[in-house]
Design a protein that fits this description.
The structure holds 2 protein chains of 2 kinds. Chain A is α+β, with helices and mostly antiparallel strands. Chain A contains 19 helices and 33 strands. Chain A has a 7-stranded mixed β-sheet, with helices on both faces. In chain A, strands 9, 10, 15, 16, 17 and 18 form a 6-stranded mixed β-sheet that branches. The chains are: A alpha+beta, B alpha+beta. Chains A and B meet through α4 and α19 of A and α11 of B.
Chain lengths: ~800, ~290
């Protein structure tokens, strides 16, 4: 292996800058059960809220009977849409500038939609009250299938929206339609598959919830809530509730420890707004914590793209072009959380890791009577969908022309010297070495021998498959010229304050939900300033103290706030140099830096440590210089970053039962410079498991009436350690040339890259039977049906 | 968990528990490990007004050999059974089944008695107990009575246990030399109910003749099912791959699975066939090692 792919540490272990596998600073409180989650917040006089939800997917509300519920001891109020209507709080905007009911006044649009809220003095009384509220519904025939939703006789669902005369939400295109058509008409080979990327759920272990604490005397709202983007949420609250006096300085959002977000804690859910409204009206803190089924059934789903994927190529296997057509089922409202200009998120990365110049993609978004979404579940923005389409159709081409899928990829990769590379849909890939990644993965897994073994097994009637995924991610949203959410630009921020004794506190606009920011941000600052990471306290999530930022999702924290940390630290290093020159009585030009100290060139004994310099900033700073040692940076990235990976999966299939066993899975990731190898490995392990989930287990399933068929963890199958194979991880290092520390972000790469590797392996195991595609999740039952059809089982 | 309101008692003796049952009748439920009842209460599918916790009653947790029988107390947990001497010895089927029941946390609390008394064909022990030809000990105000496992299950959640009785133990004859047993179920993921499950206990003589066999099926019938025709097909005959395949086919035909998210009826029938074949073979292998 090339030396440039080895992790190099510039700092000592005592400082623990970048590249050190420092243990996570936050884990002490988590492993001791001393974390502080929103359900741990208990305030005097606090009331509890539970929510009555619709059993129907589409129905008129005739009457809500609250009398019996109000008789239950402890139940103090029932809130309906009509109550909120009096304050004009019964509707709210989504992050995609669509609209969504907070509570309905007349119609419910999906099963599990909020219908009324029960407020009580205990959690138990609130739940008893929920059982006792009776609602008279008049059910209507729902629209569940997005294809049928577009038929001319389909009822128009969003009659509340002026000018909405069909269930079509928006149309989106990227690339060159005519040029792509020409390429496809003239190509030797065109392959095509229809695929569904199933509707799934982030299913974070902590559900959503809040404590809304409105103080009538101060006219001030403190909102403790499970949010990945506290600042943006505060701004949204101020925009929605400003008319009742809750202006932005009167709102404080605190996001305490979060037990998993994965994109599901970006949106504003009706429960949060109801809790705020009730607290505002009664002047008491209101706690709302979802139960598991509510979380799974009502909160924003992810994915649900129906994709027609096509690839054109020469008969030798040179890729010439791709064409993707998407039908996006958004449910009742477009409640995605994409940057404003990108309704399909960053799907247009779907041209992949391959060198060709022609592509066309289009998408149509549709309303149906299903819960709204879809959030970006650990996938940057719709990158999972895109990567599944390109990596599956690439394998389909290999199968069509009878070429080894590894060889096909190696022949078509964008070469490392071709970066920066302009993609057919307009992205500028910053850097990559795809060949190195795939060759390394092939070497680790012993690819050539596996192909020999597969041929032998096939001859004996045994089923074994090898699947590859060589994906390009696109993360770190994003440059302000193109990226905003509700108009707010997608920069992020860091503020570093170093105390006189050389210890620091650093605050950020992002919010960790398990990513380990308290450790990695400290390591970035340690790298730049030489202050030991253990002396740097990291804080996030309180809008009263942290600098403004757009939050943590889409693998953006390291590319944006991580960069801001480095830039703020560099401002401080510049200041430190001036102070060191003053202390050492030399000019700045005569000074040299090594982690932790400035010294005089040629006279290393004449040195000042960063701690001495910081102390001087408070006790002996140069006249004319501002005292203190603080810096803030708002980092506006010049480009996105483009992490990549090469994954290879080996499966064995039981030809009697259809059971699939992942025998090996090798994941070689390239996220540029690595801040903490242990944390990256942990991120990759979790992400691979969450990638295996939709590949083999998870899908939210609805019947024709819009009833969810698997609304609990009994049937919504979240895989565990038992189902997970031994993930074999590794890396190559291709730094981002535009990022201050050359890092790219990694949190989502494995979730994005794993599903097609697994699907490709299973299809490969069955390819000799004429199988070209199977929609995920690929279950034993699905495989068995194919085996039975083909006369094997 | 936010269940509906209920009263709770924790009697210290069987007599006391039975008199509480008599007092509260259908409104009362026995709480043992709680791993079937409490999830139902959490979802408010069960709203008993009175819970009678029997965990304080001494003498209901044991795995012992006595009078040529293996006897298991109702409060024996899955974990205790899994690590019992019986599981290490003649009954590897207990290891097979325990490992497939939920997860270690559940197995540390969930009881064998509860697993059977719940009367759910999706639970795993009913099929195992059929294969082992168990008798169930049921205690009421007039003392204990024994009910054969084939007469125990009446239907969905319905068993021979009357409202004022408690299931107190399970026992079955110690098998002769040359006996093996095995259980397996297909599950979508750990902790799931079986897509299909099959328990087999088989005895063979030195001529490879099947002298006795029990086959129980999990979650492929409204109530736990004995594969009677398969058993009869094997008994008294020299075991051969064809004979075993025929018996497996019969089990597949005789069950009545319902299609659900675990699979179609056709798939489940096919899986009963595959598993019956595999479990007979596995039990047979163990039987041959038992001489």
């Amino acid at each position: 292996m090339d030396d440039k792919h080895k992790i190099q540490c510039k700092t000592s272990k005592a400082i623990s800058g970048m590249g050190h596998s420092m243990k996570r600073k936050e884990d002490a409180r988590f492993v001791k059960g001393a974390g502080n989650y929103v359900d741990d917040v208990k305030l005097p006089g606090m009331l509890y809220m539970d929510i009555v939800r619709s059993p129907f997917a589409y129905a008129k509300i005739k009457k809500i009977h609250t009398e019996e519920a109000l008789k239950i001891p402890g139940v103090v109020a029932i809130v309906t849409g009509k109550d909120l209507e009096q304050y004009n709080l019964h509707w709210m905007p989504t992050l995609m500038s669509d609209t969504q009911m907070v509570l309905p006044t007349d119609t419910v649009m999906y099963q599990a939609q909020e219908v009324a809220a029960v407020i009580a003095t205990s959690r138990y009384a609130a739940r008893d009250g929920r059982e006792a509220v009776m609602v008279d519904y008049e059910p209507m025939k729902p629209v569940i299938d997005p294809f049928k939703a577009l038929e001319p006789d389909a009822p128009v669902l969003r009659t509340d929206k002026e000018g909405q005369d069909s269930n079509h939400i928006w149309h989106w295109e990227a690339g060159d339609k005519e040029k792509t058509e020409k390429i496809f008409n003239e190509a030797d080979v065109v392959v095509k598959e229809q695929m569904h990327i199933p509707r799934i759920h982030v299913a974070s272990i902590e559900t959503c919830g809040c404590v809304a604490d409105y103080n009538k005397v101060e006219n001030h709202l403190t909102m403790y809530m499970t949010t990945q983007a506290p600042h943006a949420i505060r701004t949204v609250i101020a925009l929605v509730a400003g008319h009742v006096g809750l202006t932005e300085e009167k709102v404080r959002v605190i996001s305490p420890d979060i037990g998993g977000g994965f994109g599901g804690k970006v949106p504003v859910y009706p429960g949060y707004v109801i809790a705020i409204a009730v607290s505002f009206l009664v002047g008491k803190p209101i706690k709302w914590i979802e139960d598991r089924s509510e979380n799974l059934q009502a909160d924003s789903f992810a994915r649900d793209y129906h994709i027609t994927a096509e690839m054109a190529a020469t008969k030798e296997g040179k890729i010439l072009g791709t064409r993707f057509k998407i039908l996006a089922d958004h449910g009742y409202t477009d409640a995605a959380a994409n940057p404003s200009k990108y309704p399909t998120g960053l799907f247009s990365i779907g041209t992949g890791s391959y060198n060709y110049d022609t592509a066309f993609m289009e998408a149509d978004a549709i309303y149906t009577n299903k819960p709204p979404g879809g959030v970006a579940y650990r996938c940057s923005f719709r990158v999972t969908e895109a990567v599944h389409a390109i990596e599956r159709i690439t394998d389909r081409l290999a199968q069509e022309i009878g070429k080894d899928p590894a060889l096909l990829r190696l022949e078509n990769f964008i070469k490392k010297e071709e970066f920066p590379w302009k993609s057919p849909t307009g992205w500028e890939y910053d850097s990559g070495d795809y060949e190195a990644g795939l060759l390394k993965a092939m070497e680790v897994i012993n690819y050539d021998e596996l192909r020999v073994e597969q041929a032998e097994k096939r001859a004996k009637g045994e089923l074994m498959g090898i699947g590859i995924s060589t994906f390009t991610e696109i993360v770190g949203a994003g440059p302000s010229k193109d990226f905003d959410i509700l108009g707010i630009k997608m920069f992020d921020s860091a503020e570093i304050r170093v105390h006189p004794t050389g210890k620091a506190i650093a605050r950020f606009g992002t919010k960790s939900q398990g990513q380990g920011h308290e450790t990695t941000y400290a390591q970035i600052i340690a790298e730049e300033l030489g202050i030991p990471a253990e002396h740097i306290q990291v804080e996030e999530g309180d809008t009263d103290t942290a600098p403004y930022g757009l939050g943590t999702y889409a693998s953006r924290s390291t590319p944006t706030a991580g960069a801001a940390a480095a830039m703020a630290a560099r401002k401080l290093r510049d200041k430190a140099k001036k102070i060191a020159a003053h202390l050492l009585e030399v000019s700045e030009d005569e000074l040299e830096w090594e982690p932790g100290k400035f010294f005089v060139k040629g006279a290393p004994e004449k040195a000042k440590t960063i701690q001495e310099i910081v102390f001087a900033a408070y006790t002996n700073h140069p006249q004319g210089m501002e005292a203190g040692f603080e810096a803030t940076h708002y980092y506006d990235p010049p480009n996105l970053t483009f992490p990549s990976g090469a994954y290879i999966c080996v499966v064995d299939i039981d030809n009697e039962t259809g059971e699939i066993k992942i025998r090996r899975f090798v994941a070689i990731d390239d996220c540029g410079h690595i801040i903490n190898p242990m944390i990256v490995q942990g991120q990759v392990h979790g992400g691979l498991t969450q990638g295996m989930a939709p590949a083999m287990y998870e899908e939210l399933i609805y019947d024709e009436e819009g009833n969810i068929l698997n609304g609990t963890f009994m049937d919504y199958l979240v895989p565990t350690a038992v189902e997970s194979p031994n993930w074999e991880t590794g890396h190559t290092i291709t730094p981002s040339p535009h990022h201050p520390i050359g890092a790219k972000g990694v949190g989502e790469s494995p979730t994005v890259g794993a599903p097609p590797a697994i699907a490709n392996a299973i299809v490969d195991a069955l390819s000799h039977l004429g199988v070209t595609h199977i929609d995920i999740p690929i279950t034993p039952h699905k495989v068995w049906k194919i085996l039975r059809e083909k006369g094997v089982a | 968990m936010i269940p509906a309101p209920f009263d709770y008692s924790a009697p210290g003796s069987l007599e006391e528990a039975i008199s509480l049952l008599k007092e509260h009748g259908d409104d009362a439920k026995i709480l043992a490990g709680g791993h079937s009842l409490i999830p139902m209460m959490k979802l408010r599918l069960a709203e008993p007004e009175h819970l009678i916790d029997i965990n304080n009653i001494p003498g209901l947790s044991y795995v012992k050999e006595e009078d040529g029988k293996l006897k298991i107390g109702a409060l024996t947990t899955e974990t205790e059974l899994e690590y019992s001497a019986a599981a290490e010895g003649r009954f590897p089927i207990f290891k097979d089944v325990s490992k497939l029941i939920a997860d270690p946390q559940v197995r540390n609390l969930g009881t064998i008695g509860g697993n059977i008394a719940h009367g759910d064909a999706a639970n795993d022990h009913p099929a195992v107990m059929m294969a082992l030809n168990a008798e169930v000990e049921i205690t009421g105000e007039n003392g204990a009575r024994m009910v054969g496992i084939d007469d125990f299950f009446f239907g969905f959640y319905m068993t021979a246990v009357q409202p004022n009785e408690i299931l107190t133990g399970i026992q079955f004859p110690l098998p002769p030399k040359g006996t093996g047993n095995a259980y397996h179920k297909l599950e979508r993921k750990v902790g799931d109910y079986a897509t299909a499950g099959v328990a087999v206990q088989i005895s063979v003589d030195s001529n490879n003749v099947c002298t006795n066999v029990g086959i129980g099926l999990t979650n492929v019938n409204p109530k736990p099912l004995r594969a009677k025709r398969s058993e009869d097909h094997l008994k008294g005959k020299v075991l051969s791959p064809d004979l075993i395949q025929e018996a497996a086919q019969m089990a597949s035909e005789d069950c009545s699975p319902s299609p659900d998210l675990r699979g179609s009826e056709e798939y489940k029938r096919a899986m009963v066939g595959v598993l019956t074949k595999r479990m007979i073979n596995k039990a047979l292998e163990r039987a041959k090692a038992d001489y």
